[in-house]
Design goal:
This protein has 393 residues and is an alpha/beta fold. The chain is built from 13 helices and 15 strands. Helix 3 (83-95) crosses helix 4, helix 7 runs antiparallel to helix 8 (256-274) and helix 8 (256-274) crosses helix 9 (294-301).
């Protein structure tokens, strides 16, 4: 029997005048991600339709499950918009299933059809009752809910529904620069930012030899997981060694993390301007560590006028972990390879840093020169799903 994937937009339908832009962006994203498959994609203002080969369905579903902008999708049977054809097709479909009770719901987009929705449901229900034994109608809690969408020429019948990941299609917002560490929080922040339509570049700060190539490979693996939701992610690797060493030579131990984060923000702003990013995104969660108290955030954030988005700021750790497991980054994040944010953590980092103290420590070194060197020596890797860069490093 002919089947298609029928996609429902959800939040995109609230866009009114910009709706076509959002739908077209979703269409292009799906088209790009399904380029390797033998599919035909069409769309209208309320639905998208994917014609596919049966032997590719499971793989296609796996791709669709990672596309932002989809509220729900169904595997729908295609039938001529003719009452007799609809009855016969529905019977064929239900005979493939085991159930005792059913309910039929009809949406009539084709207003020229001879029956309205309230008339069609009992016609179809009666036909099923006459032709199938030991089944009955249950309008409250049916074993099977049949959905019928009546459209000109072709109509769609479906029983099943698969929940999409929602949000807006990537590319409906401009680019953001994600501070991607090897920890649990920043990948979740990247995922949530992409869910709002933001295209991301990722930035990883490393301090070899204090951090290892294993730590870098860990971040590449995390970026590969995030790339399942996008066409690709550019991962910019910043050599942070000299800056970090100078900080630990010249600043008080308890201020090192604060100064380090201020330097990172300065570099992030420079990279954002270089790569056309409009915002900085990070995985800071209020109060989780010393550098994430409100006072610390204020002092650290003061070095840039660029907006900083903190998608997990108000989530607790367990909520973040749940999301990390959902997007399959958690098991990678807990691998025991330290990044430059954790390798030199002092025993008692300051939780209420003073701006004056920060400026005093920063005046001791020509950090502008070091920042220039770090920005100019950035190494960029284009990350795609399952990209195998590890053997090349």
């Amino acid at each position: 029997m002919d089947r298609i994937i029928l996609i429902k937009y959800g939040e995109l339908t609230t866009k009114k005048g910009n709706r076509n832009f959002f739908v077209n962006t979703l269409y292009n994203n799906i088209k790009n991600k399904l380029a390797q498959f033998d599919v035909k994609i069409s769309k209208d203002i309320s639905r998208m339709y994917i014609e596919f080969k049966d032997n590719q369905l499971d793989e296609i579903k796996e791709v669709i499950d990672h596309v932002f902008g989809i509220h729900m999708y169904h595997i729908a049977y295609v039938v001529n918009t003719n009452i007799e054809d609809i009855k016969n097709k529905l019977l064929q479909i239900l005979q493939l299933n085991t159930f005792k009770t059913f309910k039929i719901e009809t949406k009539r987009s084709d207003k020229t059809f001879e029956y309205n929705s309230q008339q069609i449901n009992p016609i179809l229900g009666s036909y099923i009752l006459k032709n199938m034994a030991n089944v009955s109608v249950d309008v409250h809690n049916p074993d099977i809910l049949v959905k019928l969408e009546l459209r000109p020429y072709k109509s769609y019948i479906y029983l099943n529904g698969y929940k999409g990941i929602g949000g807006y299609p990537i590319g409906t917002q401009a680019k953001g620069m994600l501070m991607l560490s090897g920890g649990i929080d920043s990948p979740v922040a990247g995922y949530l930012a992409m869910k709002r339509g933001i295209k991301i570049d990722a930035v990883y700060f490393e301090a070899i030899p204090h951090t290892s190539l294993n730590a870098r490979n860990k971040v590449i693996s995390i970026a590969e997981k995030l790339a399942k939701y996008a066409d690709k992610i550019n991962l910019h690797i910043v050599n942070f060694t000299q800056i970090q060493e100078q900080i630990y030579k010249t600043a008080s131990d308890n201020y090192c993390i604060t100064i380090m984060r201020r330097m990172m923000y300065r570099i992030m702003e420079r990279l954002a301007k270089k790569y056309n990013g409009l915002v900085i995104i990070n995985g800071e969660s209020i109060g989780q560590v010393a550098s994430q108290t409100l006072t610390s955030m204020s002092v650290i954030n003061s070095v840039t006028n660029m907006p900083v988005i903190r998608p997990v700021a108000c989530l607790d750790k367990l909520e973040i972990i749940d999301l990390a497991k959902k997007i399959e980054t958690y098991e990678i994040s807990i691998l025991p390879y330290e990044d430059c944010c954790t390798v030199f953590v002092p025993k008692h980092p300051v939780i209420n840093p003073s701006m004056e103290e920060c400026l005093k420590f920063e005046e001791r070194v020509d950090y502008n020169k070091l920042i220039d060197e770090a920005v100019n020596s950035v190494h960029t890797i284009k990350i795609e799903e399952q990209t195998k860069f590890k053997d090349l490093l």
